[in-house]
């Protein structure tokens, strides 16, 4: 189902954290969901978190940070 690549995956014990980063764009968390980046980890991890982080290049800072627990 995935089209594209995960920006960052962090594995800690039985948990996986999947990050999508956007610069001057919206929809980081939405992209993870729509492209199903987390699907490949469903059978191997007890907890899966998806995190969308959006940056503003003018302000040079994070403008939006969203997360959800998928599993």
Task: Provide an overview of this structure.
The chain is 11% helix and 46% strand. With 71 residues, it is mainly beta. It has one domain. The protein has a four-stranded mixed beta sheet, covered by helices on one side. Helix 1 links the parallel strand 2 (15-23) and strand 3 (47-56). The longest helix has 8 residues, at 28-35. The two termini are 18 Å apart. The model has no long low-confidence stretch (mean pLDDT 96).
Write a brief structural summary.
With 71 residues, this protein is mostly beta strands. The chain is built from one helix and four strands. The chain is elongated and about 40 Å long.
Strand line-up in the sheet with most strands: 1-2-3-4
The beta-strand count equals 4
The helix/strand order is EEHEE
- Quickly give the structural class: mainly beta
Features:
71 residues; mainly beta; 4-stranded mixed beta sheet; 4 strands; 46% strand; elongated; PD-(D/E)XK nuclease superfamily protein; PDDEXK_9
